[in-house]
Design a protein that fits this description.
5-stranded mixed beta sheet; globular; Nucleotidyltransferase, domain 5; alpha/beta
Length: about 110
């Protein structure tokens, strides 16, 4: 029994949907996205990732264009550390606005 529990603990840490360490801002309200999802992550060190692939800030727009096949059914989820300056977030949102794609900001529940 102990080995079974140990197995599940080890495999659950290996199957992590996002391995980039971020402290998300909190929100009282939440919504789950079920469409095609592209993730943009910004760490507190201002390192940018698209779906866990490191990307230079200047290449975000080009990378998004490559990855988007259907603008109507894609949602870009922005996951940024709570310590990231707001201007970095605004720059990403402006890119999404320019490309006319839906973008949302990932948050965590206040007690999480």
């Amino acid at each position: 029994m102990f080995f079974l529990m140990l197995f599940f603990l080890i495999t659950s840490t290996l199957i992590s949907p996002s391995v980039i360490k971020l402290t998300l801002p909190s929100s009282k309200y939440h919504q789950t996205v079920r469409k095609t999802e592209i993730s943009i992550s910004i760490t507190k060190e201002l390192q940018y990732y698209i779906n866990n692939d490191a990307v230079a800030p200047s290449n975000i727009e080009a990378e998004l264009i490559k990855r988007i096949t259907d603008k109507e059914n894609v949602t870009v989820v922005i996951r940024c550390d709570s310590s990231v300056p707001v201007q970095e977030l605004v720059n990403i949102l402006q890119t999404g606005n320019k490309l006319k794609i839906k973008m949302i900001l990932a948050t965590k529940a206040p007690n999480a």
